Amino acid sequence: MTVVEPRPVVHRPGRLGRFATAAGRAAAIGLPTAGVALGVAHVVAAALGRPQTAPVLAVGSTVIDATPRPLKDFAIREFGTHDKVVLLSGVYLLLVLFAVGLGAVAGRRRAVGYAGLAVFVGIGVVAVVTRPASTGIDALPTLVGGVVAAVALIVQLRFSQTTTAADAARPRLLNRRQFLVTTGAAAAVAASAGAGGVALGRTNTPGSRSRAAVRLPAPADPAPALPAGVLTTMPGGSAFVTANRDFYRVDTALTVPQIDANAWRLTVHGAVDRPATFTFDDLLRRPMRERDITLNCVSNEVGGPYVGTARWLGVPLAPLLREAGMRAGADQLVSRSTDGMTIGTPLDAVLDGRDAMLVVGMNGEPLPLEHGFPVRLLVPGLYGYVGACKWLTDLEVTTFDAFDAYWVRRGWAARAPVKTASRIDTPRPLTTIAPGQVRIAGVAWAQRRGISAVDVSVDNGQWQPAQLADGPSPDTWRQWVLRWDATPGLHTIRVRATDGRGDTQPEARAGTFPDGATGWHTISVTVSG
Ligand SMILES: Nc1nc2c(c(=O)[nH]1)N[C@H]1C(S)=C(S)[C@@H](COP(=O)(O)O)O[C@H]1N2
Ligand SMILES: [Mo]
Predict the structure, then answer these.
(1) Which of 82, 97, 233, 404 is buried most deeply by CB count within 10 Å?
(2) Which residues does the UniProt record annotate as the domain Oxidoreductase molybdopterin-binding (predicted)?
């Protein structure tokens, strides 16, 4: 007689259900493991005072440098100052996919899982140590994160599988609970370490501590008093001076470089007879100049936000270069920063008498970290990418033939004086406003040449001269206002400026690449009936 063994009744989930269970389990193993690696690395990096050595940031920075120019251009255009958030989100998304994949293979073949983790850590280490200005020790946070993550993975795998007879005999529930507990613990470690790292990285940084200790000297050559007509505030529009916290920020740095002003050095070298090195105190002992200057980015679209005016305090650059003794034939000044940026400035622009400065102060404070602490270059009349190197450490006198700077290598113009531009700040585009007397107002700039007129046209009608507020020099923007009797309906408003030489902004639209946008800022508004 044959005994037919009764088969246990099991509920087999459908295909979709099986996939979901497998994916969930893979995620439950992989995500906390990756999270532990990154969170622990982040907190160690922050505790060591080198937050930029957190592997996610190092990978992100590597991605930025490797991004082809059109894509980077697109990112800045589409996401503006959020481009870094978008990029980091992309890096995190790839990480999640990798981590889930790791969880999936680790659940089946542990050895492959550990190998996957090693690859994961390896990518981080390579990214960290190949960053400019990195040292071997910078691999430490990533390695510590990797080791702790490996332990987390071992523990999790132990509880995620029933491998021994004894395990199998145990009630499934316990096993599952243990699995959830270990996974939850790993996730908690990851989250708290990550949060701790971010918080530490914000406050306990060498840069912010050093900046707090800086005392700026009074300028020997103070900024001229602002003319009475300057509008210190402007309802709905741009105040003459842009507050530091509102000043636009454009750079390739994922974490703000942390520089101790006491350890900082500026080297002046290249085609000079007397190369020299300056400490921060050396600079502060020189006579200081203070000026109001408008700075803007070549990536600013017509009507865009990447422009601001600040009161800068700094050391005049031309005398310092003359002391070094520039050799004949040199035509380019290359600035280098601690984070590996290179910026090429025409030497004649630095030497022609304009207020080219090594800037240490912005609106009465030491330079904010985001704007280049402790020292940045500023050359009025040039877009930032050819004249405003932040976190400056090195000045090389050379030629345009001999060296292409960072953005020039990516196709942007080597010489880029700012183009005349004007912007309508109020009314806001695509808003609905009440009929009657309306102030149309904004700013216009053409550093070095100055602004001589701003005209506004409503509904393609006659150009009407706007009222121009005063400005202290041709290197700052000018505010403008025009009163308009708004009638119900949809209206378009456009603006154009004329510079100090009498040249009016061309109507033809050009994109920002390769040397700055052109065209008239045009908006439409609805006036309610
Ligand atoms: N080290 C460094 N300096 C830099 C940049 C950068 O990416 N790295 N960006 C430049 C660009 S493109 C501009 S427009 C200005 C912006 O200065 P801000 O961020 O202080 O407004 O800085 C310039 N200096
Ligand atoms: Mo820029």
Answers:
(1) 404
(2) 254-407
